[in-house]
Amino acid sequence: MSYVGHEPELAGDIEPEDLEPETAALERIVAELRQRVRHDFSQYKPGTLFRRVGRRMAIHRLSSTASYADMLEHNALELDLLFKELLIGVTEFFRDTEVWQVFAQSTLPALLEERSSGRELRAWCVGCSTGEEAYSLAIVFRETIERLPDAGNFKLQIFASDINPVSYTHLTLPTIYSV
Asked: C-alpha angle 130/141/166, rounded to 5°?
């Protein structure tokens, strides 16, 4: 209930002159994360960082980003929790439908035409979360091969990886799908 009742200020609610200390505190938080979990979040959108940090601040009833940054300096568990909070598992089958359509109708057939039959193709799905993109690629490959009369004999190996160990608890990484 304390989390629900606490509404931290978001970056959009802060006056421009007050944003500089918040940004400096956010940079400290990113540096702590980089040191603890060995991943760099400095290129994340500031709004996303502020929202995720704001959620953790609300849980601890902290009103400033600086006080949260201070807390993180001595709290490895909280750094691990923030890391998990920042790993947004955005995934779904055929996400960004238009891109998949272009890939299936022109890019993949063109790739297959320029390769000789019997060749192995390899693809790597980086940041695959729970693997829907990798499975989508396998589906599109299979459907394209079946649709093209002269596609020949190809084998596709798909490597799928993600930095979040929770994402691949049911997969063995690097996961290799052979189609």
From this structure: 10
**SS3 category, 14:** coil
Strand partners, 79: none
Domains along the chain with CATH numbers: 2-86 (no CATH), 97-178 (3.40.50.150)
What six digits make up the tokens of 42? Answer: 């400095």
| pLDDT tens, position by position, 87-129 | 877 778 998 899 999 999 999 999 888 877 777 888 888 888 7
Measured distance CA(97)–CA(28) in Å, rounded:
38
State the number of CA atoms in the 13 A half-sphere of 44 facing the CB. 25
The pLDDT of residue 10: 47
The token duo for 26 is 């956010």
